[in-house]
Design a protein that fits this description.
single chain; about 325 residues; alpha+beta; Gyrase A, domain 2; Elongation Factor Tu (Ef-tu), domain 3; globular
Length: about 325
């Protein structure tokens, strides 16, 4: 893992993300239609821009977190692969008289992420026709049209791998050729274990790992990135506003990052204790080569969610049953 992990932090590494879900929303009313469904300001998007958003139930629970890219003629939605069908079906239910069409393009495209300090240069060399400086100048979630082997490609700016970089969308039949070009341009292949380590180090929550259909976005710390508080109504807004205004933003639990003592990596769902109470559970955990010890993402009760709070992890580890609870320190409230 060390070579790919180091490359992602110091140079460039690539990761196949073709299994993520992708939906195209077309039609003249696409932005106003999504504006009433997603938590961020979709109506404000212009060609080449994008945003991160959540799709909620009327009860304010998450259906999915979604990356939204306005390409100029269509909007591309990217999401965790196993919610793609659910999101597509729910979106379809809300089309009434609008000029909106939906298309599942998950199988149509391959998606290759390239991350790390040299990712712009690597993508520029692999694709041709798009300058590294232009890629580096893209805003967060920005996008640009490009080409590969005389075929159209889309490049989006991404941060959710844990290191900033880009995602290249290309016809599925050209996936292998693109991977070869990216490797020849200087990027190392990032395996799943290294990618998971980088994600957790950066405190990036993953749907169906650190968030699910019972999660309110405020619990996962998504409000600063995924929610616009000045836009008009959207599904689930009433619950979010009630928590923020009447509850002063306080939720019963918060997602945090923990630094874990020793060498044992806690299992997901490991219990977290403070005093004589169970106050939360681990959702993701890895050993961090950069830090030299295990780290974890976990939900804890709000009164123990402040940085430097000491807690204990008390269930089994990846190496077997723990002989004693592991001490851990809250280092970050995810936001």
């Amino acid at each position: 893992m060390q070579t790919a992990y180091t490359a992602a932090h110091e140079q460039a590494a690539w990761l196949d993300r073709s299994r993520r879900g992708r939906i195209v929303v077309s039609g003249a009313d696409r932005r106003s239609y999504l504006q009433g469904l997603l938590t961020n300001d979709i109506a404000a998007l212009t060609a080449g821009t994008g945003c991160y958003a959540a799709y909620l139930t009327a009860q304010g629970r998450m259906i999915a977190d979604v990356w939204v890219y306005e390409l100029g003629d269509v909007i591309l939605l990217a999401m965790h692969g196993d919610v793609n069908d659910t999101v597509l079906a729910r979106l379809d239910q809300f089309i009434f008289g609008e000029d909106v069409q939906l298309g599942d393009v998950t199988a149509t495209f391959a998606a290759i992420a390239v991350v790390g300090p040299q990712s712009a240069a690597v993508v520029s060399r692999a694709l041709g026709g798009v300058a590294a400086d232009a890629l580096s100048a893209l805003p967060e979630h920005g996008n640009v049209r490009a080409s590969f082997a005389d075929a159209p490609a889309i490049v989006t700016q991404i941060t959710d791998v844990g290191e900033p970089g880009f995602e290249i969308y290309i016809g599925a039949e050209q996936r292998d050729a693109l991977v070869r070009a990216i490797g020849a341009a200087g990027a190392a292949a990032l395996d799943a274990e290294a990618a998971e380590t980088i994600r957790i180090e950066a405190g990036v929550p993953l749907f169906h790992r650190d968030m699910d259909e019972e999660t309110i976005p405020l619990e996962a710390g998504l409000e600063s990135r995924a929610i616009n508080f000045t836009k008009g109504c959207y599904v689930g807004q009433e619950v979010i506003i009630r928590v923020l205004h009447r509850g002063h933003g306080r939720v019963a639990r918060r997602l945090v990052r923990l630094d874990v003592e020793g060498a044992d990596v806690p299992q997901p769902s490991a219990a977290i204790e403070a005093g004589d109470k169970i106050v939360g559970k681990v959702t993701s955990a890895v050993f961090s080569p950069r830090l030299g010890h295990p780290i974890a993402l976990a939900y804890v009760q709000r009164d123990v969610a402040e940085p430097d709070t000491i807690v204990r992890i008390s269930s089994s580890s990846a190496g077997g049953n723990l002989s004693a609870p592991i001490s851990a320190r809250v280092t970050q409230r995810i936001s």
